[in-house]
Fold this protein.
Amino acid sequence: MTDPSLFQIRGLTVTSGVLPLLQSVNLDIPAGGVFGFIGPSGAGKSTLLKSLNRLLELTPGLSITGEVKFKASPIYAPAVDPNALRARIGMLFQQPVIFPASILANVLFGVKRLGILPRRELHDAAERALREAALWDEVKDRLKGSALNLSIGQQQRLCLARTLACQPDVLLMDEPTSALDNRSTAAIEDLVLELQSRQPIVLVTHNLPQASRLCGRLALLCAGRLVMFGPTAEVLDAPALEQCLTPSSC
Amino acid sequence: MTGRRRWSLTKWVSGTFSVFALLALAALLVLFIRQSLPVWRQEGWGFLTGKRWFYRQEEFGLAPMLHGTVAVALVALGLAAPLGIGAAIFTAEFLSTRLRLIVKVAIELLAGIPSVVYGLLGILLLRDWVYEAMERFEPLSGDTLLTGGILLGVMILPTIMTLSDDALRTVPASQRLAARALGLNSTETVLHVSLRQALPGLVAAILLAVGRACGEMIAVFLVVGRQDNQWPDKLFSAKPLLEAGQTLSTKLGSSETNIAYGDPLHWAAMVALGLVLLALVTFITAIGVRLQRSPHET
Amino acid sequence: MRRKFIHHFFRLATGLCAAAACAVLGLIVWAIVKRGWPAINWRFFTEQILLVGADGGIFYNLLGTGILLVTAFCVSAPVALSLALLHGVYLPPKRRGTLALLLYILNGVPSILFGIFGMIVFVQFLGWGKSWLTGGILLGFMILPTVTIALMERISAIPRKFGEAAAALGLRESQIIRAVILPQSVGGLVTGSLLGLARAAGETAPIMFTATIFAGATMPSGIKESPVLSLPYHIFILAQDSFDPAVGSKLWGTALTLLMLVFLLSLAALPARLKLKQPAHHD
């Protein structure tokens, strides 16, 4: 009875008022590698991603129905503490969100308050996370300096380090490179490839070359519906993709 | 009549009115300074530190009234700041949009209640409550600095609440969302994200409310006892709160203002008192406004 | 567990604060309505004061407050419009902050100081004595920041393209102001004036030395020595020196009337304010 899926999504429907954002999505996300959501903007990629850590329900006025299982346990069950769930699922946003504080304070922002590590281990955890995010060498001399002085690419890696410090079971990334220049994008992409061996990653992107570089499997969304999913090459070659990306069809 | 005419009628009219308004403001300042000169010449800085105000003896010292103003404002603040900021946190961070709207409307209404109505409630209700509650300390009556302070606290509560709510609203939603995505609960998000970032705005809210408290006259006038020359034996004790007192603004509202006009020195003292009040309130308000509008980081 | 406890405690504590704030409003309104309602009837609004407030009604007080408010509006509206245009159109952006700061400071000036100022300039220097006009001018100045700031917000919210479209048609600056900016800012003038007047209606301090007396005034017929009665001053005087129950009832009735007037004015301004404060969010 072991289930190889990381996420099992069944009949997930999200509506905002009368406007459907997602319509009965059924999808299994496997427990390894990088899984990508692609589709035109407004297709519901971010909505689907945010429903995986229940961040979606913080947006007022949405109704969410259907079932999502994370590691075989339903996450929308009444007994589930959404905060504890979010602590296990890391998330990276489109725009890096930096708290106006020092670099160190930013890295430790979550892990310090979740209480999962003893106080004396925090500094080591910060170093480990910054190394994993390939930022350590650039900031090790100014950990107490303001994080707002970092470049936007460094800020995004700092956000990644902040999430990694909490040692999540899975990483969700919502178009993490769309605000970045080419060099920073390459840095993040390298990190994604490196980190996937340790924990699964779910990535939203509208950049098809990026999807083909990073993702093992893809799901294609269009106008709130799951059009198809499968291995990357298969999805990228499918005629449905072409249809989906021409503006008139959506 | 060409399109290049730079001084159109509209510009001329609005310029005139604007200059008129600014001149009136300047006139207010100049008048207050000029008319108060005699008392500054006689008393010098002693006008601020003098503990005695006896106009028949031509002695003018503000210290007791400064003490009264500060005491009343501190009581008001001690009451309204925690309550107002707490309430603002609850409405801004925990309430649904619709409930938040209802609370905001209620607070707007509370802010609109005229001070003379607060004064009436103070004189006919609060005064007795304070007297009864404090009976074991044997106050002479219910007309005390404490009563004035409590009344003021209720009056500045909506100010603190509205401005704090505005300050919390300026913290970007993305910051809250990032903290929630890390697994922090809503309280931790408020404490470590919203409150920290809204801090200048919250301080501004408090300062603007203090500015209002220092200048408020009518309501305090009716319940504070208006006892002159009440300089406390021990400056930092709570005892004088249970005695009658006088604040800068209540002194200006008393009938002494009418009496003073004929006597240049006495009148100068009253106007100088107004000038001190103006300076105090303007100073506090200006800092508050600057803090409030300081550009948000990120 | 500790985190959960803090969370629940914090939410409860802040919730109690909010409940307390609303309860205070409820208590105040209830206290006034309970005592004031019995005094309210048609005669109360149509008769004049008799027996030092113990009998009769508050007709001339209502009239006086009305006169003061209308005057205050007439004084503040053109000046506020001018200042808002100065801020939104004529001033270079660098100076705008200074003007706004000045307005915020004016807004903070204690109202009793307006009273003293009016006493020096109008009562004594111009020799008007107590006059409705002084009161109206002072109240107008007091509410000037409220009205101007409401107008400024409205003018800066006008989409740039309106002005650009008008300029593209070849309209002069003054024509743009009259064709685009003024019509768009009417709402701001109304909202700001209602809010300002709600505040002015209850003000006692600026008018007590300059414009209003307790009894004996009717419709003013000139400027010099023509005071009016007013609602707030009536309450102020009666609150100080009367414990006669008959007076008490009339007193609370007056307070209730004033409160209703103020609430009506601020509620009328509310819809526009809430709309302005909550720009369309979409996530």
